[in-house]
Specification:
This protein is an alpha/beta fold. Helix content is 20%, strand content 38%.
Length: 123
Amino acid sequence: MIAYTIVGTNNIAKAAAFYDELLSVAGAQRAIDAPRMIAWGNNPAAPMFAVATPYDEKPATVGNGSMVAIAATDPDQVNAFYAKAIELGGTTEGEPGVRMDAYYCAYVRDLDGNKLNFFCMAK
């Protein structure tokens, strides 16, 4: 059902460098590299993740209550995503751990303040 998600950025170069490194944890590579939007994926038939400068040319802002969840293969990959995001300058919104007895998750904010969730089913 979902084709792609986009979060806004006010610095496409910094966001691109952050996500190039972060999404490499899942083997994702750039699928689209345009002046105001960059998208990553690891399967042409699967959804992509993108950053973009707003079309209306106003500053990008963070949506209150908005979050993008990135699927991980297992708890080790959740931990790797979280560690990489923090290493790249992201900020923690919740360290890796089991939530609701069903999910293993970690939460971060990217360089623009967009909230990301890395998750898999708890084992």
